[in-house]
Structures are given as C-alpha cells and as structure tokens.
Write a structure and sequence with these properties.
Elements lengths: L8 H12 L5 H21 L21 H4 L4 H15 L3 H21 L26 H12 L11 H14 L3 H5 L6 E2 L4 E5 L5 E5 L2 H13 L24 H14 L9 H15 L4 H8 L4 H4 L7 H9 L8
Antiparallel strand pairs: 1-2, 2-3
Length: 333
C-alpha cells in the first residue's frame, strides 16, 4: 500500500504520472514509492538534514517536508553513495541494486524532462550494476512429473481440506505455461477460451498476452471448474478462477503456501524451490525438450528483452555429452 500522506508532493506527482501516463501496475507503483522514499530519506541523512543514532536508522527519517530545492542539489555521487549504503547495510544483491537504479532513473527523468521541476538530471549517466549470470534453478523432468502426480492425489490425512483439483490445476499451469504468480492469481473465468484452448493474462506493466493451453492444462482446468465453489462466493471474487477456503480470490501468499506444501508432499525441498522456480522449470523443459524457438519462448513468458529469456538456453551435461558423441568424426578410427 502506498502511504501518499507520508510523501512530499513531488514524489506523489511522480507516482500519479507513473500510474496514469506510464500505465504502471499497482505493484510497480508500490516499488517506486518504496525505492524513492528510501532514497530521499538517505539524501536527508547525507545532507545533514536529519539526525539519527545510526546509519541503519535512515528508514525512520520523515521526508514529507522535503523541498524540491533539496532534490536539485543531488549529484551522481550521491546516488552512488545510496547504492553503497544499501550494499553495506542490507547486503543488497546486484539484482536488487539494479531495480533501485531503474526506479531512480525513471524518477529523475520525470522530474527533469517531464515535469521540469529540476534543471539537470543527476542520473543521466547512472550505470546499472553488473548482474551475476547464474543459471536458474529448476525441477528436472522426473521431479516435475512427481510433483504433478502428488498434487493430483487427495491426501485427506495430511491436508485439512481437499483442494487437490484446484492445487493440481495451479501446479499444471505453472509447469506447462511458465506464468508468473500474479498472472495466475488474477485469472478470471472469462479469461479462458476453451474453444481455442487459450487464456489471457495481465503481465508486468499491465501488458496483456495470450497463453495457449495444451491438453494437460485444459483437462486440469475443466476438472477444477466442476468442483469450484459456486455458492457463497464473495461478491468481488465471483469472476475469479481460483478461490481460497474463504471463497474469495486466492492470494499470492496462499498460492506460495500451496506450492511449498505440494513440493513437500512430493519429497522435494520447499526451501530450494518456489513458485518462481516452477516458471523457470516450465521455460527450461520447453527449451530442452520441446525444441522451442527462443523468440517464441520470449513471447510465451512475457519478457520485454530477449536477453532475459536467454538464461534458459543453458544445456545439461547430458546434452553436451551427446553433442560430442554425435560428432560425425566420433567413430573415425
């Protein structure tokens, strides 16, 4: 939730611009508010405009009274100091710092080029921290089948409620379509087209895209819809596909809990894998076994940049071995 009453006017103006003109999602607005508010609090501390006991208390600083004249004083070095503060106090990883940099860039671009509130943009030469190119963690094909098998079964002795059809449908969508958590939670029944076997989801930046459903997804969804509660569903959740025990749209946290429980039932480590790892799994399996073109995978996953999709083009040791063994010169004596 954005607490606009705690922000200076120029920050709220930026958030309004991002929500309306840039059409950013509510999650993006919350991230912008958190990142920029934290940055402005650090600036007050660095400029000696707020007294705190220790540097870690920066978040307690009040910024509502901050003037745009203070922002005009900010230089690139001050932004670098903020990033260094995050790394030393919060051990922020490069990916986290990259998100902060993105928020700061967009904020100063608005102030300088859109609203003309400041004459110079201190973030114009701000670089993105170099990211570690780590391979994503994912389930093997056998582990994926094991997870689906367990999710399909009802285990009343282990579960307080039998939501096996719902849970199986969610796991099936994650592993077959590679959708994001927020995309799955926000699916409405009307978004599903069983005639063409597809559904529409709203991804990052409020961008709508079509996901085509294979037989496994279609069958799992149809089975769930036959048992989905129809009576006493909360008014604001009548259209929601997936419902909680309270008969309202299922929450992100509930889905995360369900996935961890299903992983545990399948004998897989819930600390090692997560909802997002199921997205990685879907993308990896499609690339390794489905001979999917990288650009088709980009569209399916809703990535803006193909560079993001390229992390799934890693190959297994078995593929490397096969490549060598299949060399036409392999059997030459």
């Amino acid at each position: 939730m954005v607490h606009s009453e705690d922000n200076p006017d120029f920050l709220n103006d930026f958030l309004d611009y991002s929500a309306t003109i840039l059409n950013k999602s509510s999650n993006s607005i919350k991230e912008y508010n958190y990142d920029i508010a934290h940055f402005l609090k650090f600036i007050k501390y660095k400029f000696g405009m707020a007294k705190i006991q220790e540097e870690k208390d920066v978040k307690t600083i009040i910024i509502k009274d901050m003037k745009i004249t203070t922002v005009k004083r900010i230089k690139l070095e001050d932004i670098h100091a903020f990033l260094a503060y995050l790394k030393s106090n919060y051990r922020s990883k490069p990916a986290t710092l990259a998100r902060k940099v993105s928020s700061i860039r967009i904020f100063f671009n608005y102030l300088c080029n859109k609203s003309k509130k400041i004459p110079n943009n201190p973030a114009i030469d701000l670089e993105t921290p170099k990211l570690d190119r780590r391979l994503p963690k994912y389930l093997t094909l056998e582990d994926s089948k094991k997870l689906l098998d367990m999710a399909e079964k009802s285990v009343p002795t282990a579960r307080s409620h039998d939501n096996s059809e719902r849970n199986f449908a969610m796991i099936t969508l994650f592993l077959n379509c590679g959708m994001r958590l927020s995309e799955l939670v926000n699916i409405d029944i009307k978004d599903i087209d069983f005639y063409d076997n597809k559904l529409n989801v709203i991804g990052k930046g409020n961008k709508e895209r079509t996901i085509y459903l294979n037989n496994a997804c279609v069958n799992a969804l149809k089975r769930y819809l036959t048992v989905r509660p129809k009576d006493s569903v909360k008014d604001n959740s009548r259209d929601a596909l997936f419902l909680s025990e309270q008969k309202k749209r299922i929450s992100n946290r509930t889905v995360q809990h369900v996935v961890k429980e299903e992983l545990r039932y399948a004998g897989l480590d819930p600390k090692k894998y997560s909802v997002h790892k199921l997205r990685h799994t879907a993308a990896t399996l499609m690339y390794q076994y489905g001979q999917v073109d990288i650009r088709a995978l980009q569209v399916l996953l809703g990535h803006e940049s193909i560079a993001t999709t390229e992390i799934y083009t890693h190959v297994s040791n078995e593929q490397v071995r096969n490549a060598v063994e299949n060399n036409p010169l392999a059997n030459r004596r």
